[in-house]
Amino acid sequence: MLVTFRGTATNATAVTRSASTVCFSMWSCPTFRGLLMLLVNFLPWRAQRQKKAIRRFVVMVFCYVVATLLCLIAPYFAAMSHQQMLSKRLVDMTASNTIKLNEIKHIKDIQQTVSTLTQLQNQTQKIRQQSLLLQTLFTDIESALPNSIWLKKIAFQEKKLVIEGLGNGYLSAMEFQQKLGRSSLMAGLQLGKMMAVDDEFSVFSFIFTANWTGAAL
């Protein structure tokens, strides 16, 4: 019986050692360890932890996407706002420039009107001056004109004064020339031409020329 017991103990020890060797060999195998870890990962608390990790990952990805969209949308809206501000400023500047252009045009119109009025005033002043000179000339001619002479034409040729008329005799024409030569509006009064107009030599036609010293007419 003792031998049998020892044999049984020996067999049990051998079986235990064999089982240990098999377990160690299986644990040393990578495939077995991966299968064991896979089985472990499907434990209830591992599954919950994995779900939480997946949920956190999804939330993180969602937040990243939202942040990315905000980063992309914010500059777009800022650019749109800046563009609208620039458009408004452009409209305001255009309106302001239009008002200024209208004011400048109005000022130019006023200046043109003032210039036209100034020219008209100068022309009016010139006409008044010429009228006074002509009035003075006619007064001088009238005061120098004898009763025996009558005039046919008074003309201005550039700066020359031409007087044509008729007179009873040569002496009356000379008297008229002498008196008219005292006028301050003419210089160098000369008898240009004198001839009888009838057979009796009682009436003569004459032409006087002089340099006009007044303003140009």
From TrEMBL:
Swiss-Prot/TrEMBL keywords: Membrane, Transmembrane, Transmembrane helix
Keyword Membrane: yes
InterPro entries: Extracell_DNA_Util/SecSys_Comp, PilN
Transmembrane regions listed in the UniProt entry: 24-45, 57-78
Keyword Transmembrane helix: yes
Pfam families assigned: PilN
Signal peptide: none
UniProt-recorded name of the protein: Fimbrial assembly protein
